[in-house]
Amino acid sequence: MPKKTKLRQLELPLEFRASEFVSHAHIAFDGRLIGYTIKRSRRRGSITLTIDERGLRVGVPWHATHGAIESELRKHETWIVRKLAQWEERRAPPRRWQDGEALMLLGEPLRLTLAPGLQATVSDGERLLVGMGALSRSDDIARTVIAWLREQALACFRARIAHYVPQLLVRPPETRLSEARTRWGSCHPAGRVHLNWRLIQMPLRLVDYVVVHELSHLREMNHSPRFWRTVASIIPDYAARRKEIRTEGHRYLLA
After folding, report:
1. What percentage of the chain reaches a pLDDT higher than 70?
2. DSSP helix/strand/coil, 202
3. Spatial distance between the Cα atoms of 42 and 72, rounded to a whole number of angstroms
4. Would you tell me which of 48, 108, 229, 231 could form a disulfide with 59, CB atoms 3.0–4.6 Å apart?
5. Sign, CA torsion 96/98/100/106
6. Burial class (CB in 10 A: 0-12, 13-18, 19+), 202
7. CB count in 10 Å sphere of residue 253
8. Are the beta carbons of 168 and 161 closer than 8 angstroms?
9. How far apart are the C-alpha atoms of 95 and 81, rounded to whole Å?
10. Could you read off the pLDDT of 121-154 as tens digits, one per residue?
């Protein structure tokens, strides 16, 4: 009877495509367990490390061994620990969802104001009035505020898409809100665009960049030079906006 081959899985697959494979793993630095994302690519020739609001990401060649990846991480242990600590310091403090808390709508401050007896959630431009009292549960307040922000997000995103569709000469896509924690938008070949509802907190110029970026994928489903020329034809300073989102986007990860 033939012996069964034992397989040991070192990485937890998150996503698989023909030319890319994304997985998750951990490494211990001085007793601290650090999680990281591995992105394997047939086109990549060396190991690269990236740290941002999403944490540590490691880009590796398709056939890179787990040992080679771990060796590269240990070689840069000091840098990794320092950068992760810097990003941790920049994270917005957890929300308490109470009267007077500062919110953001399209880059402008909005003060959460509890208004017992009010039948709807409304904004007067400076305050977001929520029909709840000081004794309301924070979870209930959070759900109400987020529901309102999602409504504003969908209306705003649809309006911005309608504005840019004629300029990009693409068909109007189906628009859906996303709950993703690591991505601001995505585009599907079937003609669907998903936009993270948290974008509604960003200034409109950054919302527009993400909208144009995703709509441009309806013409080019890649990040080729032609794709970036398409984006630049609508937003010439897209690189600056993209950088701003990558460096400041963590501020908008509400809830």
Report:
1. 89
2. coil
3. 19
4. 48
5. positive
6. buried
7. 15
8. no
9. 26
10. 999 989 999 999 877 899 999 999 999 999 999 9
Q: What is the C-alpha to C-alpha distance for residues 202 and 249, in angstroms, rounded to an integer?
A: 8
Q: How many CB atoms lie within 10 A of CB 104?
A: 17
* Residues above pLDDT 90, as percent of the chain: 69
Residue 175 phi/psi, 5° resolution?
A: -110, 130
Q: What is the rounded CA–CA span in Å between residue 27 and residue 36? A: 8
Gyration radius of the chain's alpha carbons: 22
Q: State the amino acid at position 225 in one-letter form.
A: P
- How many Cα atoms within 13 Å fall on the side-chain side of residue 118? 15
Domains in the chain: ranges and CATH: 12-90 (no CATH), 102-252 (3.30.2010.10)
Mean pLDDT, rounded, of the chain: 88
The CA–CA distances, whole Å, from 189 to 22, 65, 122, 160, 194 equal 20, 33, 37, 20, 12
Q: Please tell me the pTM assigned to this model.
A: 0.70
What residue spans of the chain are helical by DSSP H?
66-75, 77-90, 138-168, 204-216, 225-234, 238-248
